[in-house]
Amino acid sequence: MEIYTFPVELAAFKEQEQTTKPQIPMSAPAISYSVTKNDQGAVYDWQNDKITIRLAASQTQGLFTLTEDAMKPTFKLGLHMHRKHAETFHILEGEVEFRLDKNTQIAQPGTTIHVPSNVPHGVRVINGRPARMLMLYAPGGFENI
């Protein structure tokens, strides 16, 4: 994981001509950004899926945790809910059935589903093929549960 820190003062960014080098005050507070490459991030390898932490809460000032879940065709997680965070799912590959409270939604690649905290939901892979999705937990910290 590479973490870069540089001073930024948003008020200092004014329209400048392309020939003018931006002036960034050295006394400005530091803001860091993170880069996680494909072979980086903590991995949790369970029986039916493998979760990779793409951005931990420590990398996002606690705002969110971003994970990638590679699920086997037999993956199924029954109805449950989270009291302290919301979940957003974005399907990358395969087909996933979501139970959202009393409703069912089939999600294909490109589908994004947001589940607020305290909403019962369940997930299962369908059609006998593996699936892969990004999951965003807000606020961050899911990796510490």
Mass-distribution shape: globular
What does the main sheet amount to? 6 strands, antiparallel
Count the DSSP helices: 0
Overall domain count:
1
Distance between the termini: 22 Å
Structure description:
It contains no helices and twelve strands. The protein has 145 residues and is mainly β. The chain has one domain: Jelly Rolls. Strands 3-4-5-12-7-10 form a six-stranded antiparallel sheet, with no helix packed on it. A hairpin with a 3-residue loop joins strand 3 (43-45) and strand 4. The two termini are 22 Å apart. Residues 1-18 have low confidence and may be disordered.
Helices and strands in order:
Blueprint (H helix, E strand, L loop, with lengths): L1 E6 L22 E6 L7 E3 L3 E7 L9 E7 L4 E5 L5 E8 L1 E6 L2 E5 L4 E4 L5 E6 L4 E8 L7
Antiparallel strand pairs: 1-2, 3-4, 4-5, 5-12, 6-11, 7-10, 7-12, 8-9, 8-11
